[in-house]
Design brief:
homotetramer; 337 residues; alpha/beta; TIM Barrel; 2 domains; 14 strands
Chain lengths: 337, 337, 337, 337
């Protein structure tokens, strides 16, 4: 961490400032210039509240971090990839598991039909929303606990592990039997939820917030790891920009840069990322090619009747076609789907 | 609601489509053009899930709402201003209550010192964070329940009603004695929290999300009103943009346009909105002039030692100077501070 | 175009309004509802200035376009792909031409070294900036006309056609011998420049503006086509968002959606799109997979000594490796590089 | 400027790096830490191309500027306010000149009617667009040179100095008799235009780009000053964000922070900033209160018939009402309108 002092600060005061940090266990180096003086702090500065440090001092102009704020998720601390394994689904550089299923669980028939079809097409996990965060109180809010039960039935029939979104920490008991707990984009900075989900002892799929920087995304993953979760899967799903032709702007650069910064697997959801069915297949091809560790695709037996997000769901035939295409491409990547 | 049909759709199919809606109790008008045909739906369409309606049909290209999705918060439904009254603080067009206090409650001495000073300067409510949502798990997370107790002591000593942020719905019992429950920007779309807060039977101060449109902001207020809350106060606090010189971009246009759309009072928080102490006073003057119904300002007895957001907090003297200035200006606005 | 009338407008006035449009040659349909009345306009409405149309009337609340504002670039008007051919470089669905070269032309030796190397690696066009738009007046502004001369020498030696950015319309004579005239992102809405470039009778490569919607991008292409240019190549190069870890946010969804809306070829520039060398290769793979019609990559013989944008340039070896990889992948796409 | 070295770089190489800079006339200080080493550069670093400096070296990880890139516009270099005086219009802290007039010049009658009315209401300058940048080639492009002539006639009749937008540098001769040359938002980074406008020896009103940071805004002003212009007026006019309810998001925080960074006057245009007539008056009040040095307002004798941007123009009566209100308020600010 580098503290840049205000212009004209007395040398003695700068030295005193540096000494204070040394008493806290850091090494320091004072750099005196003609216009500015800087104090460089050496040691583990991740736990320093930088704003606070600046404002407890009269003489500091501003500070810059040289190392990241996150530790547990950082690749510099943990150079090897974290491999998340959930039954047959392996999130690592040799595989490309696909999570498929409807936006919302709507009925037993629907979820079984979709589950069997996507399994046959090669999906490794079943997704389905039971609790649905919706902008409008008048929109369908999901089947709630009943929806989770239907997912479990589908798992029993197909063997596919299930992924579903938990909306608040009072739902922890309901999600004990879910294989991967999903934290939705709107809740990426619901820190109490992160703490509760991270303590469940199971994999957590964390979606990037609509207006969250990659740094904040990693810090939210840090919350999960600090709470005890070892198996965090990061999911890019589009950010909010000025563009209105797509629902969100899918940020594929996030994949390779996240993989530089962290050891956690990174997957992408092109359904929410674009909001447009016809874009899902081309972007899925790009997601595989860019080096993501998996894919999450909304799939519905009858998108036109879907109670939620039908415009972005593939039907079962489209999904099967996509999987055939991706398998062919995965060979080139050295990945197994 | 207007449904625009795909090009070349058969007239008979359009008529059938219109008939379906009539059977649900809506009136319809079919407009046939050379390139496009449209079906206009008349009646209360607020509860229609538009996406779903589009995708249950083969023949619809897209739909547009003519009326808003929200009802309870809409000025067209409730033309008169809602006046929120909490002890001496009145949020309406004749008053301009100021909410002041520290970002975080840090100690009894701190909160009492600040409370007494801001009261003397003319603040009508005391704010203080007990539960703090922080991007990093290593940052100070607030004094929690103890912080709420200190706020209550400060209320007893000064008579100022208290405002504090509730982070999840399990905290409802803890907040029963808080005068105004605050929902923070990161939780603006934490719908379970909105439902719980809205059912508490007390005023709720709802902060706009960092990346939330004004439409989403109003829909979140609609969640609160649907849950039973009559006294919702909207608070603009800056949105996230590409600009990095300020912490957020404070959107003052939001004030007059929200006041056209809704009957609820609208206040502004320039401390989070800018993140820079020296901008708080000029922006506060603008907030009064633009027609806001109140102001929320971070104030600290010693900003340099603040455990959170010190860079944007006024000290007690600065706050007093600001209040003197605002009182002088309020005369012109016909408002009492 | 649909005009939605203000509430409570007299039926007679609406009919008069419709009649005015009929006198201008449009068909109209009047839809009367309980709350709102709408007038649908049929015919070629692309040339109507919608804002003006709304505000010349007392009784119109707002208007919505049913068809797009652009005509010449629209796929609905011109269903077949436009194929742009410049010597051996063919921009269409069977090819994937790569444009490579330095951000700035710096010397004869530099440009010849790079040109020969990228040709050997399989590039089909040589790019090089002679006139450089730079945010700071103190940054290197390019070799200007001398730079263009060096590009021509490189073309003579290698046979590669050349692409370079024209910054203002007085430069038209200088660019007569350039094979493809590039319009930079900052100039995407420099309409006088578009008119001049479009009238030159040669292919134009139009880069998307940093904050331009896809609709505005297409309208700028429409300016080029209206000025006489048939061979417009669209180039996505990242948009400005709140994210700071990458220089821009590369919007790959733009590729398939642009290809639905327009018949023009669409290429992508991952160098400016990300600003980070290590991201160029993974994104290039994604760009091929997502269905783009070509690629533009900054390449330098010695990126560390580059006078501009060195951080995002590949060195010659990295570029060669990328081309080898892309050729292998192009087979799967049915494209020739 | 601080260069942070890559981890593990040999001390000797760092010293050599520092020595290179010393040979160029800078003082340096080398700070050695356990994880990172930094080299601080002292002297006037504004003219260093930082990217280039980083990439000419193997051993530098990244660099940070301690001082700003701009010099001429910086308040640290020129602490006193620049006062721009154009006839009776004085842009400084004691005045608040209002620039009014139509978006586009449409006819002699229109421009004279508006000019006389706004003068009577207290405007100090007349604005009017002769050359109009429009997103669509089918929209009205302005009366061009004829429009400038009409503005001059209006000036002769009313004595009001005139402000009009110059779109490209070939128009310099046409604008010689215009009192203030305006550079539009879309051209804020049209650097050739800035150089030409800056060399004209007259005041330039520079509008902030839709997606331009305040740093870029100041750098564009630096282009003007480097070209010889002493009288630059900065104009905030809204930035592009995800919000769609207003045309742009007016950034009023820009005013006080720009006034900290630069000595140039800062004015605001709420007409383009919001795009909505009913928001212009409340925002104008806020603009005065926040400390801006002037105001630019679109005013039309018949907004419903305006050929451009009618939705955001005040009519003459509304403008007169606004001016009366602002005069009353200016007393409090110690400013004369």
């Amino acid at each position: 961490m580098i503290f840049v002092m205000k212009p004209g600060v007395d040398k003695q005061r700068v030295d005193d400032f540096a000494k204070q940090w040394e008493q806290k266990g850091y090494s320091t180096i004072v750099s005196v210039g003609t216009e500015h003086t800087a104090v460089c702090l050496i040691g583990n500065t991740a736990s320093i509240d930088m704003d606070h440090a600046v404002h407890t001092s009269d003489i500091v102009d501003y500070a810059k971090r040289v190392t990241e704020q996150y530790r547990a998720v950082s690749r510099s601390v943990h150079p090897d990839d974290t491999v998340v394994k959930v039954k047959d689904a392996i999130f690592d550089c040799h595989h490309f598991p696909v999570i498929a299923g409807p936006c919302s669980v709507e009925s037993e028939e629907q979820v079984l039909t979709v589950a069997e079809a996507v399994k046959k097409s090669g999906a490794k996990l079943l997704r389905g929303g039971a609790f649905k965060p919706r902008s409008s109180p008048y929109a369908f809010q999901g089947m709630q606990a009943d929806g989770l039960e239907l997912l479990k039935i589908a798992r029993e029939k197909t063997g596919l592990p299930i992924v579903s979104e938990m909306m608040n920490q009072t739902q922890v008991p309901l999600f004990e039997e879910v294989d991967i707990v999903q934290i939705g984009a709107r809740n990426m900075q619901n820190f109490d939820l992160l703490k509760a989900a991270g303590a469940m002892g199971k994999p957590v799929l964390l979606k990037r917030g609509l207006a969250s920087t990659l740094e904040e995304f990693l810090l939210s993953a840090e919350y999960l790891m600090c709470a005890g979760c070892k198996d965090v899967i990061l999911c890019e799903r589009g950010i909010r920009t000025f563009e209105t032709m797509t629902r969100n702007t899918l940020d594929l650069s996030a994949v390779p840069i996240l993989k530089e910064k962290t050891h956690l697997p990174v997957i992408v959801d092109p359904s929410h990322g674009t909001g447009i069915r016809s874009l899902v297949a081309p972007l899925s091809r790009a997601i595989l090619a860019v080096g993501a560790d998996g894919l999450m695709v909304e799939t519905h037996n009858n998108p036109k009747l879907a109670l939620c997000d039908g415009a972005q769901s593939l039907d079962l035939e489209q999904f099967d076609g996509l999987m055939t295409d991706l398998r062919r491409r995965a060979v080139l990547e050295g990945r197994e789907i």
